[in-house]
Amino acid sequence: MDIDAWVWWLIGAVGLGIPLVLTAMPEFGMFSVGAVAGAVTAALGFGIVTQVLVFVVVSVALIAVVRPIAVRHRDGGPGIRTGVDALKGRQAVVLERVDGNGGRIKLAGEVWSARTLDTGQSFEPGEQVDVVEIDGATAVVM
Protein backbone atom coordinates (compact mmCIF):
# COMPACT_ATOMS: atom_id res chain seq x y z
CA MET A 1 0.00 0.00 0.00
CA ASP A 2 1.62 3.22 -1.20
CA ILE A 3 0.31 6.39 0.49
CA ASP A 4 0.76 9.67 -1.37
CA ALA A 5 2.92 12.37 0.22
CA TRP A 6 -0.01 14.78 0.59
CA VAL A 7 -1.76 12.28 2.87
CA TRP A 8 1.32 12.15 5.12
CA TRP A 9 1.31 15.94 5.29
CA LEU A 10 -2.36 15.92 6.32
CA ILE A 11 -1.64 13.29 8.97
CA GLY A 12 1.18 15.56 10.20
CA ALA A 13 -1.22 18.54 10.23
CA VAL A 14 -3.68 16.61 12.38
CA GLY A 15 -0.82 15.43 14.60
CA LEU A 16 0.25 19.05 15.11
CA GLY A 17 -3.35 20.09 15.74
CA ILE A 18 -3.74 17.71 18.68
CA PRO A 19 -1.15 19.47 20.91
CA LEU A 20 -2.74 22.77 19.90
CA VAL A 21 -6.02 21.64 21.41
CA LEU A 22 -4.44 20.01 24.47
CA THR A 23 -1.95 22.74 25.37
CA ALA A 24 -3.56 25.86 23.85
CA MET A 25 -0.24 26.80 22.26
CA PRO A 26 -1.04 28.62 19.00
CA GLU A 27 2.39 27.81 17.55
CA PHE A 28 1.23 24.23 16.96
CA GLY A 29 -1.68 25.58 14.92
CA MET A 30 0.73 27.58 12.80
CA PHE A 31 2.86 24.49 12.19
CA SER A 32 -0.34 22.62 11.33
CA VAL A 33 -1.23 25.23 8.70
CA GLY A 34 2.32 24.87 7.34
CA ALA A 35 1.76 21.12 7.05
CA VAL A 36 -1.49 21.73 5.12
CA ALA A 37 0.49 24.01 2.79
CA GLY A 38 2.99 21.16 2.37
CA ALA A 39 0.09 18.80 1.54
CA VAL A 40 -1.19 21.19 -1.12
CA THR A 41 2.32 21.44 -2.56
CA ALA A 42 2.57 17.63 -2.65
CA ALA A 43 -0.88 17.33 -4.27
CA LEU A 44 0.27 19.73 -7.00
CA GLY A 45 3.14 17.33 -7.78
CA PHE A 46 6.15 19.21 -6.41
CA GLY A 47 9.09 17.31 -4.94
CA ILE A 48 9.86 16.68 -1.30
CA VAL A 49 12.40 19.52 -1.09
CA THR A 50 9.79 22.03 -2.29
CA GLN A 51 7.20 20.57 0.09
CA VAL A 52 9.52 20.95 3.08
CA LEU A 53 10.51 24.47 2.02
CA VAL A 54 6.83 25.48 1.72
CA PHE A 55 6.13 23.97 5.15
CA VAL A 56 9.04 25.87 6.74
CA VAL A 57 8.33 29.18 4.98
CA VAL A 58 4.59 29.15 5.80
CA SER A 59 5.17 28.08 9.41
CA VAL A 60 7.88 30.67 10.05
CA ALA A 61 5.88 33.40 8.29
CA LEU A 62 2.84 32.66 10.45
CA ILE A 63 4.90 32.68 13.63
CA ALA A 64 6.67 35.90 12.62
CA VAL A 65 3.48 37.74 11.60
CA VAL A 66 0.55 36.26 13.51
CA ARG A 67 2.18 35.56 16.88
CA PRO A 68 3.13 39.20 17.67
CA ILE A 69 -0.41 40.30 16.77
CA ALA A 70 -1.88 37.59 19.00
CA VAL A 71 0.42 38.56 21.88
CA ARG A 72 -0.66 42.22 21.56
CA HIS A 73 -4.33 41.21 21.67
CA ARG A 74 -3.78 38.86 24.59
CA ASP A 75 -1.98 41.51 26.62
CA GLY A 76 -4.84 43.95 26.03
CA GLY A 77 -2.89 46.93 24.75
CA PRO A 78 -3.11 50.23 26.61
CA GLY A 79 -6.07 49.19 28.76
CA ILE A 80 -8.67 51.24 30.53
CA ARG A 81 -7.83 52.76 33.89
CA THR A 82 -10.50 52.19 36.52
CA GLY A 83 -10.96 52.85 40.21
CA VAL A 84 -8.30 54.92 41.93
CA ASP A 85 -5.97 54.50 38.94
CA ALA A 86 -8.42 56.56 36.88
CA LEU A 87 -8.14 59.42 39.40
CA LYS A 88 -4.35 59.77 39.17
CA GLY A 89 -3.39 62.71 37.01
CA ARG A 90 -6.79 64.42 37.23
CA GLN A 91 -7.37 67.93 38.44
CA ALA A 92 -9.32 68.79 41.58
CA VAL A 93 -10.54 71.95 43.29
CA VAL A 94 -9.46 72.74 46.84
CA LEU A 95 -12.46 73.08 49.20
CA GLU A 96 -10.57 73.47 52.50
CA ARG A 97 -6.92 74.46 52.84
CA VAL A 98 -4.67 71.52 51.85
CA ASP A 99 -1.19 71.14 53.32
CA GLY A 100 1.05 68.31 54.50
CA ASN A 101 -1.36 67.55 57.39
CA GLY A 102 -4.56 67.34 55.36
CA GLY A 103 -7.43 69.19 53.80
CA ARG A 104 -10.41 68.64 51.46
CA ILE A 105 -10.71 68.66 47.67
CA LYS A 106 -13.48 68.04 45.16
CA LEU A 107 -12.31 65.30 42.82
CA ALA A 108 -14.52 63.77 40.12
CA GLY A 109 -17.63 65.22 41.77
CA GLU A 110 -16.83 63.81 45.21
CA VAL A 111 -15.25 65.32 48.30
CA TRP A 112 -11.93 63.71 49.18
CA SER A 113 -9.50 64.17 52.02
CA ALA A 114 -6.19 65.32 50.64
CA ARG A 115 -2.62 66.19 51.59
CA THR A 116 0.21 67.71 49.64
CA LEU A 117 3.06 65.72 48.18
CA ASP A 118 5.52 68.33 49.47
CA THR A 119 4.86 68.87 53.19
CA GLY A 120 6.01 72.50 53.00
CA GLN A 121 3.49 73.40 50.30
CA SER A 122 -0.14 74.44 50.81
CA PHE A 123 -3.15 75.27 48.63
CA GLU A 124 -6.02 77.61 49.44
CA PRO A 125 -9.74 77.06 48.66
CA GLY A 126 -10.61 77.56 45.00
CA GLU A 127 -7.16 76.61 43.67
CA GLN A 128 -6.70 73.84 41.10
CA VAL A 129 -4.47 70.93 42.12
CA ASP A 130 -3.23 67.81 40.33
CA VAL A 131 -3.75 64.40 41.90
CA VAL A 132 -0.44 62.55 42.04
CA GLU A 133 -1.64 59.38 43.75
CA ILE A 134 -4.29 57.96 46.00
CA ASP A 135 -3.06 56.79 49.40
CA GLY A 136 -5.90 54.81 50.97
CA ALA A 137 -8.80 57.31 51.06
CA THR A 138 -6.54 60.35 50.78
CA ALA A 139 -5.59 62.08 47.54
CA VAL A 140 -1.99 63.21 47.37
CA VAL A 141 -1.87 66.46 45.40
CA MET A 142 0.57 69.01 44.07
Keywords:
3 helices, 142 residues, single chain, 5 strands, 5-stranded mixed barrel, 46% helix
Mean pLDDT: 91
Low-confidence stretches: none
The portion of residues forming beta strands comes to 15-25%
Output the strand order for the largest sheet: 1-2-3-5-4
How far from one another are the termini? 82 Å
Gyration radius over CA: 30 Å
Determine the fraction of residues in helical runs and give it as a percent range.
40-55%
Largest sheet: 5 strands, mixed, barrel
Count every beta strand, where a strand is a DSSP E run of 2 or more residues.
Answer: 5
- Figure out the total of helices: 3
Shape: rod-shaped
SSE pattern: HHHEEEEE
Going by helix content, strand content and strand pairing, the class is alpha+beta
Task: Offer a quick outline of the entry.
This protein has about 140 residues and is of the alpha+beta class.
Describe it.
This protein has 142 residues and is an alpha+beta fold. It has helices at residues 5-23, 26-43, 48-75, and strands spanning 91-99, 102-107, 110-116, 128-135, 138-141. Strands 1-2-3-5-4 form a five-stranded mixed β-barrel. The radius of gyration is 30 Å and the shape is rod-shaped. It starts with a helix and ends with a strand.
Q: Topology, please?
A:
Elements: H1 5-23, H2 26-43, H3 48-75, E1 91-99, E2 102-107, E3 110-116, E4 128-135, E5 138-141
Parallel strand pairs: 3-5
Antiparallel strand pairs: 1-2, 1-4, 2-3, 4-5
